[in-house]
Known about the structure:
Subcellular location: Nucleus
Largest sheet: 6 strands, antiparallel
Mean pLDDT: 82
InterPro entries: bHLH-TF_ACT-like_plant, bHLH_dom, HLH_DNA-bd_sf
Structural class: alpha+beta
Low-confidence stretches: 63-84
Pfam families: bHLH-TF_ACT-like_plant (PF22754), HLH (PF00010)
Strand content: 25-35%
Domain BHLH: 3-54
CATH topology of the largest domain: Alpha-Beta Plaits
Keywords: DNA-binding, Nucleus, Transcription, Transcription regulation
CATH architecture of the largest domain: 2-Layer Sandwich
CATH superfamily of the largest domain: ACT domain
Amino acid sequence: MENQRMTHIAVERNRRKQMNEYLSVLRGLMPHSYVQKGDQASIIGGAINYVKELEQKLHFLGGNKHYTTSRDNSIMVSENHELAMADIEVTMVESHANLKIRSKRRPKQLLKMVSGLQSLRLTILHLNVTTVHQIVLYSLSLKVEDDCKLSSVDEIATAVNQMLGRIQQEAVLI
Length: 174
């Protein structure tokens, strides 16, 4: 009986060691912003969110174009012509918004977008930029400030679309 107990303890110790090694590798594969704490639940939750974002980037960069409004308070606006303006996806939870923009690369586009978002009273908390040839995907985590006049995903998507239209017009004039 004692020998069986000691075997069980050794097996359990090895399982925990292996689990901790896997969690350490998993944590190392993700950007630091996805794991705020070092506990197992935070690492796994961060990994789930990171994989979801990578799936969205893959989908976005793949060129699938459509317009959807879903029950989870999100909206995706896509242009019908080939990336003339941008594909925009906005999701909101309370006073935080996630914004994904896929567009052609243009001179000083990121600088103008940051400035434009600030003027809309949308504070950038996190920004990720992915490029493939002349296509760029911006993934932004935003804080909707109390004095922001935009209160829905539709309003944010429309304002961002208008801002990108101005940026495109300026790029054509250069």
